[in-house]
Amino acid sequence: MDILKLSIDWAKAEVFSAKITLLIGMLFFIAAIGFWQLGKTAMAKAFVWPVLVAGILIMVVSAGLYFSNKPRITQFEAAYKTNVTAFIQMEADRTSKSQNDFIIVFKVLPLIIIAAALLIMFVDIPIWRAIGSTAIALMTVLMLIDSNTSARNAAYHRQLLKTATL
After folding, report:
1. 3-state percent breakdown (helix, strand, coil) of the chain, nearest 5
2. Which of 21, 53, 84, 97 stands the most exposed, by the fewest C-beta atoms within 10 Å?
3. For the segment 148-166, what is each residue's pLDDT rounded down to a tens digit?
4. Count of C-beta atoms within a 10 Å radius of residue 55
5. Rounded CA gap, 130 and 36, in Å?
6. pTM (2 d.p.)
C-alpha cells in the first residue's frame, strides 16, 4: 500500500472527524438555547450555562483536530518527497506518542464520569446536578470522539510499522 496515500487519507479522516465534532458542539449550543428559551423549572434553567460551556469545549476540540490535521494533508507530500524513511519514522513516532496519550485519556475520562455521577447523587442543588449531567454527556462525547481517533491512529500506526519493516 502506498504510504503517502494512506497518510493523506488518515489526515482527511481526522479533518472529517473535526467537522462531525463541530456539529456535535453546535448541537450542544442548540440545547443550551433550548434550555434558556423553553426551560421553566429551576433544573431546566440550571442547564443553560453548563451545556453552553460544554458546547464551547467541544468546539475547541474540533478546532484542535481541524487545525492540527488540515495542514498535514499538504505537508505529508512534501515530507514524503524529501525523505521517505524519515517521514515514516516521524509519523510512526508521532502515532506511537498519540497511542500513549489515548491510554491516559481513557483512564481519566471515566473517572470524571464517576465523579460527576457522584455529584448528581449526593448534591441536591440544581446547578450542580446540571453540571454533573453535562459533564457526563461531555465526557461521553469526548470518549466517542477519542475512541474513533484512537482506532484510526492505531490502524495507521500498524501500517506505518509494516511499511517501515519492508
Report:
1. 95, 0, 5
2. 97
3. 999 999 999 999 999 888 7
4. 22
5. 13
6. 0.90
